Amino acid sequence: MMEPIILFVDDEPAILRAIKRIFHRSNLQICTASNSVDALRILEQTPVSVMVSDYSMPEQNGAELLAQARTIRPETVRIILSGNNDQTATIEAINQGKVFKYLTKPFDKDTLIREVDAAVVEWQNRIFIEPEKKLLKQSALVQLINSKQIQNSDIEAIAVVLAIRDLDLVKEQLGNNETHQLLVSIAPSHQTLAEGVSLALLDEGHYSGFIELAANCPDPLMSVHSMLDKFVVNPIIDGRAHNIAFDVGYAVVDAKEVDGATLIRNAQLAMQTASDGQDSCAIAFDHQLISNRGRLLALQSGLRTALANDEFVLFYQPKIDNTNLSLHGAEALIRWNSETLGQVSPFEFIPLTERNGMIDEIGEWVINEAVRQWKSWYPDGDSGPAVSVNVSAVQLKNKEFIPSLERTLARHDLPPSLLELELTESLMVEDMNKVIEMLQAVKSLGVKLSIDDFGTGYSSLSYLSRLPVDTIKIDRSFIMPMLESNEKLAMVRNMIRLGHDLGMQLVAEGVEEEDQLLVLKELGCDITQGYYFSPPVAGDEFIGKTSEIVDSQAPTTHSLSVKSA
Questions:
Q1: CA-to-CA distance for 35 and 37, rounded, in angstroms?
Q2: CA separation for the pair 495, 328 (Å, rounded)
Q3: Which of 125, 207, 256, 428 is the most buried (most CB within 10 A)?
């Protein structure tokens, strides 16, 4: 916590003794120096709030000293207290040191106390965004960290950066001024924070804290959560209670890192990494994050031009009907061959497109390309195999999604029943009534729907029975180990029974071994997808691959209808 510190500088010991007597009953911390060398040393090591200097001193005059003080600590309020009433000296002091006041000797006790108190208020206005809460400005926090590290190079402490999730949405709703007031109002007051904790509001609207780790609480994460607990997380905005969640990054003070600005930047980088995740969490800074952030920025830059540069391509993984080992369909999977980054995994770039808003444009390209390609392979009839495409909750919530889907089907004249949209279970955390409304709009077009990665997220009978879906895909994490124990096998069996009871088809993902296939057929699983039959392959390989599969297994009516693109 930053309490006011007053530094008096005078080459006359009697003056300094008198000043100490005047302020000995005050709550202010008083320091004294009898020369400019000692004064500057104190300034470098201590966050001085107010500096009161004599004008006429042997080494250098007060104006010159305060000018140097200004470069060391710009936030310090500077006062000249001098017996020199020369007008030239006054002008020099003001011009060189930009002093707050010029007081003359002999001084009146009450006047000196009053002027120092006024200087403390000025100091508070300089360093605090909210003086009553002692909520610091960014520059003041940097100065504080630097001072603490200079005073104790072995200090055990952390810098923390806290960011409110969806702050941009709050700004859209309230405006900048009201958002600032909200940020101040939910911040804890200094009385509620533990000793050794200082808090600032950064220029970006994030909070930053500096926490000196106590001997009884050396764990950084515990200290972070202790500070977080002091925030108001259910503020009333426009008459409604809002739940505030934070992304948190922190950086442990390192003996090599003596710069407060660098320490805060490191914590900020960790916070940005935390914000890339789906859940609120706290992440510690390490130097690997710097290269990771560079990678992220490179991905963002590359994605902006990837579509225009034709860097995306679709691969297809066959789905096989277990009843006769014929081709049931295929899942279209996007791949990115970046000119600058090489091959980039969808697990890396798809979540990024959902956060930066590019998922709509890229998702539209995927659906259009899959429909175009599928129509070229299956130009006749509406009873052939279907192509499935992964769709995120972000896409579905876009009001242009349904019209765009309709136009794509019409443009390529593909029967809607030959297109299936695969949805992840994470969609179920949305408002269920809205989800059902969106899915019913898709179903009204004649397009099929599938729940992907079933069992890994928010599965429940209550939602499954209400959703207008055709297919459930059992996640590979259940299929891969199902032969290891009766319990794991029973889990898969129950999923298949559940799906059939609800009138849905079951797809088993991640099938890699013949034993898995045979057991799934015995359990009544309808469709198989996995490396046992084929990995995802490029479009120009798909026709040959499917012919190879069905020829090696059994005749299939679907494979006979395949035509080259």
A1: 6
A2: 20
A3: 207
Ranges in the chain annotated CATH 3.20.20.450:
301-557
Domain ranges in the chain with CATH number 3.40.50.2300? 5-129
Location of each CATH 3.30.70.270 domain in the chain: 135-286
Predicted confidence at residue 96, as pLDDT, reads 61
Which residue, chain included where needed, has tokens 């990024």? 352
Task: Give percent of the chain with pLDDT exceeding 70.
Answer: 89
Residue 381 in 3-state DSSP? Answer: coil
Fold annotation for 135-286? Alpha-Beta Plaits (3.30.70)
- Please check whether residue 325 is in contact with residue 557, taking contact to mean a CB–CB distance below 8 angstroms: no
Domain 5-129 CATH superfamily = Response regulator (3.40.50.2300)
DSSP letters, 343-364, are: EE-HHHHHHHHHHHTTHHHHHH
Residues 6+ apart with CB under 8 A from 196: 1, 157, 211, 212, 213, 214
DSSP alpha helix (H) spans, 378-534: 393-397, 401-412, 432-443, 461-464, 476-479, 486-501, 514-523
Q: Using the structure block, give the residue that is written with the tokens 């995927």.
A: 366
- The CATH fold of domain 301-557: TIM Barrel (3.20.20)
Q: In terms of Cα–Cα distance, which of 376, 348, 373, 358 is closest to 308? A: 358
Count CB-CB contacts under 10 A for residue 61: 23
Look at residue 93 and tell me whether its pLDDT is greater than 70: no
DSSP letter at 240 equals: E
Considering only CA atoms, which of 15, 10, 65 is closest in space to residue 43?
65
Q: Quote the CA–CA distance of 350 and 452 in Å, as a whole number.
A: 16
The dihedrals phi and psi of 87, each to the nearest 5 degrees, come to: -65, -35
What pLDDT does residue 561 have?
33
For the stretch 151-210, pLDDT in tens is 777 788 999 999 988 787 777 777 788 888 888 889 998 888 888 899 999 877 899 999
DSSP class of 214: B
Which residue type, as a one-letter code, is found at position 402? I
Which residues lie below 8 Å from residue 170, measured CB to CB, with a gap of 6+? 164, 179, 182, 237
CA distances to 28, 82, 180, 436 from 23, in Å: 8, 18, 37, 72
Residue 122's CB is within 10 A of a number of other CB atoms, namely 15
**Tokens 């309490």 found at:** 3
**CB distance 54 to 36 below 8 Å:** no
562 has a pLDDT exceeding 50: no
Model's pTM, two decimal places? Answer: 0.62
